[in-house]
Every structure is written in C-alpha cells, then in structure tokens.
Write a structure and sequence with these properties.
- The complex is a heterodimer of chains A (328) and B (355).
- Chain A has twelve helices and twelve strands.
- With 328 residues, chain A is α/β, with parallel strands linked by helices.
- The model of chain A has no long low-confidence stretch (mean pLDDT 86).
- Chain B has 355 residues and is mostly helical.
- Chain B is 76% helix and 0% strand.
- The chains are: A alpha/beta (328), B mainly alpha (355).
- At the A-B interface, α2 and α4 of A face α11 and α12 of B.
Chain lengths: 328, 355
C-alpha cells in the first residue's frame, strides 16, 4: 500500500444526464507503484478516459465524481481544494491526449504553450525559460528545437504535435503521466516512434505512467501491468504474462483472441458478439453476462467481486469463485 | 487579355510572398511587408467588385418606373420641348449603357456629378453627412462590442444557468424587436413622459456658456439613437460570442490548458476567448451593413442628420446621381469594413496565410 504512488479506491464517476444517470466509472480500483507503467485497456466508451479525467479532477458538468478515493503521494486528491489541485495538475500529474493536433491551442506558439506550464510549476528565470523549452523539445526529438518552438501548432505534423504534448507533460518532471490513447490517432509508423520515445523517456524521467488504450498490442509494448476495463468496471488486473499467457476473464480472453496473430493460422478473427452496454441502464449482475459464452444463472443475479486468484492477479468473474468450477 | 494580366500580377505577388523565409515570420517587418502585398491583392479584387455593383445598381435604378424629370421640375405642366431640352442637357436621352459609361468615366476621376435638385455636387452632399453617421455607428459599435463580449463569455461559461437564460432571452427580444418600434417607445417614454432626453436632432439651437455644456448637450442627443442601435447589434453579437465560446470551451486544447494547472480565469480569457473571438471578427466586418440599415430607421425617427436619413429621403425620387453616389459610397464602406475584418483576422489567427 505504501509503495503505491497512485491508489484509486472505489471510484465512482457519474454523468447526470436528462435521460438518467450514466455510471461511466463504477467502483473502480487501481494501483500504480512508483516508476511502474499500468495499461488500462477496454473498448471505447468503457470509462477509461473518464477514469483518467477523474484523476486530474477535470470532470465537467453534467459529470461528477460521486464517490471513492484517489490516493496520490499519501493524500486523497478528492479532498483537495481546487487551488491545491491546480498545483498538482501539470506539476505532479500531467496528461497527454488522444488528439495531439486539437490538444494544442491553435493561436499560441508551441514553445509558448510549453513555457506556460514551466512558469506555473517551476522556479525558472524568465530568460532561461526559452532554453528550457528548447531543451525539452530536443529531448522528445523535435529537430531544430530553438527554432521550432516559435512555430504554431498547425506547422507541426501529428507526430511532432504529440512529441510536443509529451514535452509539455514532462516539462515539470511529473511523478505520474496519464497518457490517454496517445498513439490512437497517429499513423502506424509514427505510433511506433512515439512508443519508442515513451519507452526511452520512461527511463530518463522515472515517472509512473497510466497508459490508456484499446489496443493490447500497443499497451503490451510499454506496460508492466494491465487492467482490463469493461462497462465502467475493472474485470481483470494482472502483470503482462498473467494477461497474455493466462487470461482469466472471458472478456479478456475474447479480447486477446480478436487480435490478429502471425503465429497462429486462423480463418477468421474472433469477434465478441453483441455491443457494449449503455451505461444508463447496465445489465444486472456481471455487466458482461449478455455477451459471455460461459454465462451462468448467478451471472445475471449477482455482481462478481474483484478477487485475487493468483498472486498479483485479480479477476471479477463467477467462474473463479468457490462455488462454481472454472472452465479452463 | 485584361484577365491574363491580372492573373500575372497576382502570381508575381504570390512569388514575392513565397520567397519570404519561413524563419522570418515572427519578424514584424516581414509581417508588415506580406500584409502590404496582401492588402494590394485585396484592393485589386475590390475594383472589379465595385464596378459590378455599380452596374447592377445603375440598371436597377433605371429599370424602376418613374421619370427623373419630375424630380427636377415637379408636376407643373411644362412644354414638351422644354422637357426634351432638359433631358438632353442631363444626357438622359442617351441609351442606358451610354449613360453608364459617361457616369463611370466621371466617377473614375472622382466626380460623382450634380444633384438634379438644387444643383449641388453629390460628393459634398454625402461627405457632409458622413461624420454624423460615423459617430453614431462608432459609439454604438464600441458599446455593443463591450457588452456582447462580456455577457457572451459569462453566459457561455455559466451555460444552462439562470444568468445564461436571462441573457439569451434578453438577446432574443432585443434581436427580434423592430428598431422603429423601440425607437418610438423610447422617444415616448424618455422624451415625452419623463422629459429627461431631447426628442431629436444633434444638439439644441441655443448658445452655450462653455464647450463642455455643448458637449453634454450633444451627448444627451446621442443617447437615444445610439442606444437603439446598441440594442439590436448587442443582441446579434451576444449570440455570436456565446455560441462561439460554447464551441471553443468544448475543444481539447481547453482540457489541455486546465490539465496544465492554469487558473480557470486564464483558461477562459487567454486560451478560450482568443479563439472564440476569431469568428466574431468576421461578423464585425458585416456590422457596417447592419448598423447602416439600423441607422436609416433611427436617424429618420430622431432627426439625426446622417447618411441613414439621407438614404431614406432620396430613395423615393429619381435623383440618379445622388442615388448612385450614395450607393457607391455605401458599397465602398462595406467592402472596406470587410477588408479590415479580414486583415484583423489574418493578424490574429496564425493559421491564415496571406494568399
């Protein structure tokens, strides 16, 4: 417990819409140790990004954090005042987003936007700021950094913009970097470059990373541990080998089988039948049961709890609770 | 041939812009240089636009029924020979296209001709009325801009709140209430019943002890007509600012700004407002058209001796030189305002290149 940098306990983030309450994040538990990279995987709309935004406490109306705790560095972020939270945002916890091009403000220079973060969180002399910005841009691989910092975002390519976003996020040496699908909207080659960059920076900066994504392949490149999320809940949580070699939850198994593989010859890829449930009115019991091929009677009646079935491997599925037999 | 040479000119200017080193773009000297070529390009385009506008208006005026001779001589019985003589003197016996070419050749030399009535030069008749209208419009414009931006930002930030609802309903009323109706009500209340403001004109016909007294008297005359213009234009701009701001507040870069740890005030007034005002600049370009049509009503009602009232006065008669002159002046004003708006946009938005 003490070694965790971030520990999310029973986090509930709800959106109070006119149609009803959307429980986008419902009783989520996550832990990230110092210098660890945790991957948070799930389909779109499962609450991954909402979890990330909740950590930053940037949920906007009609959304609201309805309960739970977010322990960071021994303090509950949810109990902090807005002023104290601002010191943490961009300082101790920073974030990069899915759309690098739209995440940079079009009317300010890239360098100016990075300098803004440095001015806020670090005690740097005014005339040294520009050097500092150039230095960090150089670290993320922007060529001619001292010239390119005068450029506006539209003069950057998507990959460069994401590098700049990473530079901005790392400019204040954060303890935790929340990366919300940082490579999703980039070309495959650029994706690889950005992943390489993040790997290299991970060693340099020693920050913990929460890497959010829907692509298990991308996630596995960088992560030590993986949490699988489905319909607002964590369904399985383990290290890389646990998830890839011994997946327990039927959803994780199905996800893995839907990734194309070169070493196995199959006619067609596995697809998961059905669609992601609407979170206004989620299925009773286990939220995956309508799509699950192992569904039993109890699955629709009782919600399975996240239980540790092997060391550091937790899963929320009735197949693994004492009164039912595992099928694998 | 002419099109070809225009094309070549534009291309040459293009080249000049492209030669500019990308690295020098933040150097103000270079920015002003490229702006200058941009302005030249735009002015070159304005000329054919003006010629086209003048052709359309000229034809429309001549298509409208009625004879300009009656504007000159009234409806007294006059010998047909005399009429014919006058017609020849003013060139009205020529075919319309000949009349147009004669008119255009004079305009190019800066001569808008003489009024059929009173025989005064059209240029003088118009220019003496421009200051009054300009004053009214500038005052209305500045006040409207300040109110609309302030309320628009507040309404957008407090979306769905009571403040938002009150402002939006107020704007809807201000936008849909006809100018002439508000003018008459305001006149009745403030000048008629309360007697706190003068009923019309630009100043009282009396001598003042100090220049300050004269100024105060003038401003008291300005209050009602300016306020009426402010109401309509504020309502219009407010809706623009609010929707633009709402749109910007949803953008990813606003989340980035917040995730950086910036104060909400900085997020709103630095990161959001600068972007939200970009489309507003374009609408500012249209403001002159909106305000002029409003001025036509307001100036007539409050006897404000400006272009708007003049426009209404002469619209009914067939005083061709005055009608054409006024139309062209208005066209030039509108096109200049649009050019100004585009220039401002180009300066404020780094994504716009001057080509």
């Amino acid at each position: 417990m003490n070694e965790s940098l971030l520990s999310i306990n029973n986090l509930k983030t709800y959106f109070y819409t006119e149609e009803g309450v959307v429980k986008a994040v419902d009783n989520v538990n996550l832990k990230i140790k110092k210098e660890e990279v945790l991957g948070l995987v799930g389909e779109s709309g499962c609450g991954k990004s909402t979890t990330a935004i909740s950590i930053m406490r940037l949920i906007r109306a009609p959304g609201k954090i309805a309960g739970g705790e977010i322990w960071f560095d021994g303090e509950d972020l949810l109990k902090k005042s807005e002023g104290k939270m601002r010191k943490i945002r961009g300082g101790k916890i920073s974030m990069i987003f899915q759309n690098p091009m739209s995440s940079l403000n079009p009317v300010f220079t890239v360098g100016g936007q990075i300098a803004e973060a440095i001015k806020l969180h670090q005690n740097v002399q005014k005339r040294e700021i520009k050097e500092k910005v150039a230095e960090i841009l150089d670290k993320v691989g922007i060529p001619d950094p001292s010239e390119r910092l005068e450029d506006y975002p539209h003069e950057y390519s998507g990959g460069m913009a994401q590098r700049a976003m990473i530079a901005m996020a790392l400019s204040c040496n954060p303890e935790l970097l929340v990366a919300d699908e940082p490579t999703t909207n980039l070309d495959v080659t650029i994706q690889a470059q950005i992943l390489e960059l993040m790997k290299a920076l991970r060693k340099d900066f020693g920050a913990s990373i929460l890497l959010i994504g829907h692509d298990l392949g991308v996630i596995s490149e960088l992560c030590d541990k993986i949490a699988v999320m489905y319909a607002g809940k964590i369904v399985e949580n383990s290290d890389l080998t646990g998830i890839f070699k011994k997946p327990k939850h039927p959803y994780t198994q199905a996800l893995l089988e839907s990734i194309p593989r070169l070493d196995v010859e199959t006619e067609r890829l596995r697809i998961i039948p059905g669609t992601v449930p609407r979170l206004i009115n989620p299925p009773s019991g286990c939220r995956f049961h309508p799509r699950c091929e192992h569904a039993m009677k109890i699955c629709s009646e009782q919600e399975p709890l996240l239980t540790e079935i092997e060391k550091e491997h937790t899963v929320a599925c009735h197949l693994y609770t004492s009164n039912s037999k595992p099928s694998h | 041939m002419q099109r070809y040479s225009l094309y070549v000119t534009l291309n040459l200017i293009d080249k000049e812009i492209n030669i500019k080193e990308r690295r020098e773009k933040n150097n103000w000297g270079v920015v002003l240089m490229t702006l200058r070529t941009y302005i030249i390009r735009r002015v070159i385009v304005i000329i054919p636009t003006l010629i086209f506008i003048s052709m359309v208006i000229f034809s429309l005026i001549h298509l409208a029924p009625g004879d300009p001779l009656y504007a000159m001589v009234g409806r007294h019985p006059i010998h047909p020979d005399t009429l014919e003589m006058i017609r020849r003197e003013f060139g009205l016996d020529q075919p319309v296209y000949v009349q147009y070419v004669i008119w255009l050749s004079k305009v190019v030399r800066g001569d808008l001709g003489f009024s059929y009535v009173g025989n005064r030069p059209v240029t003088a008749m118009i220019t003496e009325k421009i200051p009054a209208t300009l004053e009214l419009m500038l005052v209305a414009e500045s006040i409207a801009l300040v109110i609309a931006v302030t309320l628009g930002v507040i309404a957008a930030v407090k979306h769905h709140s009571l403040t938002d609802a009150v402002c939006s309903v107020g704007a809807l009323i201000g936008y849909s209430a006809p100018n002439f109706w508000i003018s008459l009500i305001a006149m009745m209340v403030f000048a008629g019943w309360l007697k706190v403001l003068p009923i019309g004109g630009m100043g009282s016909h009396r001598t003042f002890n100090t220049p300050l007294d004269a100024l105060v008297d003038h401003l008291r005359h300005l209050v009602l007509p300016a306020s009426i213009l402010v109401i309509g234009w504020t309502a219009y701009l407010f809706r623009m600012v609010r929707s633009s701001m709402l749109d910007v507040l949803r953008q990813d870069y606003i989340t980035t700004a917040r995730a950086k740890g910036l104060k909400e005030r900085v997020v709103i007034y630095k990161h959001a407002l600068r972007n939200a005002l970009l489309p507003v600049i374009t609408y500012e370009g249209y403001s002159i058209g909106f305000l002029l049509s409003g001025a036509a009503v307001v100036e007539t009602i409050f006897s404000w001796p400006g272009l708007g009232r003049f426009m209404v006065e002469i619209a009914g008669n067939r005083n061709y030189p005055v009608l054409m002159g006024l139309s062209m002046i208005i066209a030039v004003m509108v096109l200049t305002a649009n050019l100004g708006a585009d220039l401002a946009y180009a300066i404020v938005d780094p994504r716009i290149r001057y080509d």
